[in-house]
Amino acid sequence: MRRQKTYGGYVRRGLPWAVVIGKHAEECPAGRADLMAAQRALPGCLSQAGPEGIGRVGNYTYRLVSACGDRAVATLYFLDSPAYADEGRRRYAPLAPAQIELCLRTAQAVGSENGGRREAHHNGRHPAALSSSPQS
Prior knowledge:
About 30% of the residues lie in helices and about 10% in strands. By secondary structure, the protein is an alpha+beta fold. A hairpin with a 5-residue loop joins β1 and β2.
């Protein structure tokens, strides 16, 4: 029922959608992997478990490409945020170094593909479409 409320509008309209697993997943009786699997089973879900070896679930990127499909105009970074730091529940833990490395590798790859520019900027006037596959 809750998933229907959360994602139902996207599913009914046939819209692609993606979410990131985050710190509140720690409070859910189902684990992160189960939450991701439940989301992936819904129509239009673009969420990915992300590469192994990074830790946690849901570290991935998607590139928004130009309408012509010839270059990236933006990159969306989805990072599974950790719960609490080891010192207690007063501070959230930082992102893992492997998560930051994923962002740096992706930005470097996008820059190489765009002739040295990280993203092609068009002041919001250039139509963009979500690429059909994740870049993780």
